[in-house]
Backbone:
C-alpha cells in the first residue's frame, strides 16, 4: 500500500457489557477517538465480538471506505483473530487491523472512572497512531507433516499415541525408561472401582508394542527439536541397552544369572534388581537392559563376570554388545508434538518432622502401592519392615501439598489414594486405620460414594494437619510404636496416636528436569513448575508454541480419568491439524531493505533459527531471510547496524508511533 | 498542588509479560494506573531507540519485561535483551537520567501478581525521583511522526 495513501480509520469502542463500560466512559472515549487524525468513524457498541458488532465493521469498510480498523476491547490474545477475520470478510487485509486492550490492561485493574477513561483514551490513541503505519501482509500456507512425536510413555502418552495411530497416522513414542507404563504401572489398584492398575493398563501397553503405526523408542530421550508447527525436526538419543535388541526374546535368564544387585527403581527401593534387568514382568518392549555403571563385565573391560554372555541362549548378549555398543542418534521429522512427561513424587525427607528417613515404617504412598501389589516384593501382604503385620496404620494427607513451605497447590489424587489405602488395609489385615486429613476432596465420578463406603468400614478420621511423628514413647501403650501428634480441629484437642505404620501421601510435583524439557520444546512453566497451557480453561492442551501440546501430569497433578481425557484431547488437536493438512505461516517475519543492507552478517550471527543468510548477488553481499524458518522474534532487527532489517507488523515506525502516543501525558 | 503522577512505558513480550498483565486483569489485581503497555513479540525485539524515544517523549520511567531464561518462545530472547539492556543502561546514564528510571524484569505468564507489584514499586520510586529531566524535550523538536503524517496527508 502506498505510503501516501489517504488513511481512513474506523475506531470501535466495546462496552463488553459492564466489563469495560462499568469503569470506562465509553462514549467519551469514542468521542475522543473521533477527533484523532485520520479517523473516519468512531463508534461504541455493547459487544463488538457479537455478530452485529462484527457486522458494524464490515458495513463501515464497505460504506465508508475504511482502510484501517481499531477495536478497543479485550486483550488481543483473546479476540485479535476474531476481528482480523471480520476485517478480512469486509475485504480488508487482516494486518490493517489493530486491537487496543482497554479491558485487561485498564478497566479490570482500575476503579476510578476518570483515571480509567483517560488511560483508555491513551491506549486508543496509541492504537490509532500505530494502525496508521500498519501494512497489508500476505498470508502464506505450508503443508503439515502427518507424523507425530509423543514424549513420555505413561498412561497419557500411551493413550495419545493409540488415538492417533488408530487413525493410521505414524507416531514416534519416546520413553526415557527401559519400558513404557509410567507411574500407573507401579500402582496396585485404582480408585474408586478398585480395578487392578496392571490389568487395565497392560492391554494398552501391548497394543502400543505391536501397533503397525507406532514406532516405540524406549530407553531413549529427545535431545533436540528444531523447526515449527507442521515441520519439526527431532533428534532422539537411543541409549545403549548393551544387548542385541533384534535377538533378545526377554526370557530373563540373564537376570537370574547376573550376580550384581541394586535397588529396583520400579519397586521404589523395596526390592533389588540385577545389573542386567527387565524392570517388570509385562515390560514393553520386553528387552533386557544392562546398567553399565553396575555391570562388572563392562566396568572391568571384559575381565570379570560375563555370566549373562554364557547363559544367553538367544545370543543377544555378546562381548561386542557389552563393551562396544554405544548410544545411537535417531533423526526424523514430525508435524506435531505431544509432551506427556508426567510428574515426580515429592521427597518427604525434606520434612524431618515426619521421620521418613529416620523410621523404617514411615513409607510413601508409592511404596505402599508396591507392598499391596500381588506382584510386589511381599506378594501383596502389607508388612512392616520386620515382617510383622501392622496392628495400626496412620495415613497422613497433604505431605508437601497445600503447604506454603513446599507446594501451595492441592495434588488432587492423595485424598482418594488415602481412602483406597484404608480400604486395602481393612480388607487384608485387622489393623486400625487413621486418616489424618485437612479437607477431604472427593470430586470425581464415584469418589464421594467410595468415601462413604470407607467411612462405614470403621476407619477413624481425624481432621488436622499432623505436626510430628516420633518413636519417643511417653506411655506404656506407645512403647515400640510410632507416635503421631495431631490436633483434631473438630474436637479441638491434641491427639497422640500410637501406630505401627505411617503412610505419607506425598505431593505430585513437576519433574526435576522440567526446565530442560521446557527449553527443548519451547514450553512455558507456571510458578509451581508445571507446564503452562495456552488457556487454563478454554485451551487446556495447547501451549503457546503452535504444534506442541501437553497432556497428563506434566501440566499439573491429575488422576487417571482426567489424564486419559486430556491425552485424547491432545490427540484430537493433533488429528485436526493432520486432517486439515496445512498451516498458516507466520506473516510477521523479518524483511531486508536491500538498499540499506551492507551484508555485515550480524543478523546471521544473532539468529537462533538460521533464517537470515548473507549471500553474494549482483556483485555485493546482502542478507536474505528464509521466511519459513523465521519466527519473527526481532533480534536481527535490533542487531542490524544500518536499520536494513525489520520485522513486518512490528516495524520501528509502528512501535515508535505507539511509544510516541503513550509517552505524552 | 496535584501530586506528581509519573508515566511509565512498559515493553512487554507477547508470550510472558503481556500474558501476565492480562492475567492481572482477569484476576482483577489492581495496580497503579501510570503504566502504558507496548506489546512486542519478544523482549529481544526491543530496540534501545524505543526506550530513548519514550524518555524523549516525556516518559518518566521505562520497563522492559519478558520471559524467564528458560521460558522464551524464541529460545534466547531474554539473553539478547539483557545484552541490549546493558548498552541502553549506559546511554540512559549518559543522558543524565537516574538508573531507577529504567528497569528490566523477567515476568512469566503466570505471574500477574508480580507484574502488578513491579508497576506499583516503580511508580513509588518514580514519585520520589520526581519528573524526568527530559520532560518537555519534545516541544523543542517535534516528533518525526507528526511531521511524516503531515507530509503524507498533504
Residues:
Amino acid at each position: 500500500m502506498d505510503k501516501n495513501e489517504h488513511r481512513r480509520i474506523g475506531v470501535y469502542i466495546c462496552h463488553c457489557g459492564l466489563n469495560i463500560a462499568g469503569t470506562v466512559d465509553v462514549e467519551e472515549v469514542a468521542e475522543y477517538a473521533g477527533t484523532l487524525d485520520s479517523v473516519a468513524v468512531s463508534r461504541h457498541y455493547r459487544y463488538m465480538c457479537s455478530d452485529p458488532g462484527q457486522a458494524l465493521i464490515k458495513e463501515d469498510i464497505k460504506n465508508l471506505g475504511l482502510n484501517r480498523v481499531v477495536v478497543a476491547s479485550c486483550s488481543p490474545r483473546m479476540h485479535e483473530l476474531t476481528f482480523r477475520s471480520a476485517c478480512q470478510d469486509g475485504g480488508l487485509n487482516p494486518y490493517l487491523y489493530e486491537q487496543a486492550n482497554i479491558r485487561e490492561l485498564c478497566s479490570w485493574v482500575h476503579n476510578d472512572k476518570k483515571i480509567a477513561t483517560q488511560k483508555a483514551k491513551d491506549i486508543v490513541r496509541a492504537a490509532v497512531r500505530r494502525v496508521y503505519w500498519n501494512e497489508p501482509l500476505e498470508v502464506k500456507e505450508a503443508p503439515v507433516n502427518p507424523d507425530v512425536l509423543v514424549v513420555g510413555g505413561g498412561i497419557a502418552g500411551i493413550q495419545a499415541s493409540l488415538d492417533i495411530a488408530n487413525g493410521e497416522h505414524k507416531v514416534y513414542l519416546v520413553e526415557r525408561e527401559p519400558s513404557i507404563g509410567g507411574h500407573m504401572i507401579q500402582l496396585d489398584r485404582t480408585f474408586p472401582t478398585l480395578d487392578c492398575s496392571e490389568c487395565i493398563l497392560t492391554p494398552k501397553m501391548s497394543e502400543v508394542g505391536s501397533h503397525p503405526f507406532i514406532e516405540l523408542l524406549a530407553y531413549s530421550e529427545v535431545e533436540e527439536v528444531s523447526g515449527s508447527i507442521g515441520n519439526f525436526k527431532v533428534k532422539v538419543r537411543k541409549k545403549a541397552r548393551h544387548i542385541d535388541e533384534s535377538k533378545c526374546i526377554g526370557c530373563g535368564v540373564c537376570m537370574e544369572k547376573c550376580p550384581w544387585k541394586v535397588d529396583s527403581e520400579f519397586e521404589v527401593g523395596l526390592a533389588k534388581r540385577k545389573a542386567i534387568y527387565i524392570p517388570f514382568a509385562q515390560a514393553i518392549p520386553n528387552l533386557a537392559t544392562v546398567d553399565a555403571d553396575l555391570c562388572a563385565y563392562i566396568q572391568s573391560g571384559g575381565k570379570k563376570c560375563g555370566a549373562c554372555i554364557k547363559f544367553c541362549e538367544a545370543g543377544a548378549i555378546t562381548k561386542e554388545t557389552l563393551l562396544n555398543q554405544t548410544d545411537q542418534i535417531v533423526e526424523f521429522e514430525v508435524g506435531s508434538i505431544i509432551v506427556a512427561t508426567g510428574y515426580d513424587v515429592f521427597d518427604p525427607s525434606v520434612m524431618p518432622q515426619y521421620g521418613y528417613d529416620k523410621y523404617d515404617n514411615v513409607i510413601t504412598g508409592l511404596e505402599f502401592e508396591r507392598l499391596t501389589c500381588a506382584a510386589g516384593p511381599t506378594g501383596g501382604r502389607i508388612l512392616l519392615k520386620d515382617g510383622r503385620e501392622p496392628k495400626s496404620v496412620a495415613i497422613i494427607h497433604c505431605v508437601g501439598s497445600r503447604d506454603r513451605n513446599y507446594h501451595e497447590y492441592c495434588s488432587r489424587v492423595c485424598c482418594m489414594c488415602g481412602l483406597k489405602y484404608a480400604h486395602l488395609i481393612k480388607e487384608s489385615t485387622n489393623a486400625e486405620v487413621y486418616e489424618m486429613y485437612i479437607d477431604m476432596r472427593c470430586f470425581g465420578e464415584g469418589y464421594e460414594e467410595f468415601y462413604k463406603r470407607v467411612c462405614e468400614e470403621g476407619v477413624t478420621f481425624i481432621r488436622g494437619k499432623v505436626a510430628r511423628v516420633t518413636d519417643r514413647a511417653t506411655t506404656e501403650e506407645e512403647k515400640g510404636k510410632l507416635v503421631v501428634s495431631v490436633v483434631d480441629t473438630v474436637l479441638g484437642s491434641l491427639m497422640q496416636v500410637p501406630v505401627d505404620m505411617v503412610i505419607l501421601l506425598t505431593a505430585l510435583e513437576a519433574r526435576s528436569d522440567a526446565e530442560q524439557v521446557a527449553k527443548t520444546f519451547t514450553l512455558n512453566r507456571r510458578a509451581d513448575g508445571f507446564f503452562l497451557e495456552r488457556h487454563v480453561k478454554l485451551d487446556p492442551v495447547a501451549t503457546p508454541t503452535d504444534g506442541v501440546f501437553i497432556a497428563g501430569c506434566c501440566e499439573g497433578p491429575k488422576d487417571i480419568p482426567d489424564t486419559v481425557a486430556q491425552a485424547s484431547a491432545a490427540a484430537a488437536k493433533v488429528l485436526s491439524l493432520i486432517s486439515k493438512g496445512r498451516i498458516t505461516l507466520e506473516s510477521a517475519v523479518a524483511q531486508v531493505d536491500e538498499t540499506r543492507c551492507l551484508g555485515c552478517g550480524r543478523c546471521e550471527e544473532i539468529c537462533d533459527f538460521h533464517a537470515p543468510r548473507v549471500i553474494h548477488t549482483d556483485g555485493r553481499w546482502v542478507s536474505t531471510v528464509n521466511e519459513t524458518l523465521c519466527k519473527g522474534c526481532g533480534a536481527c532487527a535490533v542487531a542490524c547496524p544500518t536499520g536494513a532489517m525489520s520485522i513486518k507488523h512490528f516495524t520501528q515506525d509502528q512501535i515508535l508511533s505507539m511509544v510516541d502516543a503513550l509517552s505524552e501525558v | 498542588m496535584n501530586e506528581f503522577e509519573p508515566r511509565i512505558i512498559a515493553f512487554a513480550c507477547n508470550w510472558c509479560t503481556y500474558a501476565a498483565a492480562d492475567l492481572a486483569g482477569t484476576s482483577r489485581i489492581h495496580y497503579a494506573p501510570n503504566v502504558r503497555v507496548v506489546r512486542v513479540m519478544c523482549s529481544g525485539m526491543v530496540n534501545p531507540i524505543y526506550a530513548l524515544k519514550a524518555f524523549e517523549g516525556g516518559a518518566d520511567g521505562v520497563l522492559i519485561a519478558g520471559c524467564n531464561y528458560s521460558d522464551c518462545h524464541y529460545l534466547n530472547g531474554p539473553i539478547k535483551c539483557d545484552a541490549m539492556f546493558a548498552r541502553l543502561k549506559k546511554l540512559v546514564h549518559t543522558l543524565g537520567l537516574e538508573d531507577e528510571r529504567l528497569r528490566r524484569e523477567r515476568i512469566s505468564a503466570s505471574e500477574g501478581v508480580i507484574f502488578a507489584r513491579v508497576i506499583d514499586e516503580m511508580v513509588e520510586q518514580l514519585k520520589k525521583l520526581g519528573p524526568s529531566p527530559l520532560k518537555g524535550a519534545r516541544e523543542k523538536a517535534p516528533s518525526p511522526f507528526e511531521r511524516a503524517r503531515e507530509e503524507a496527508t498533504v
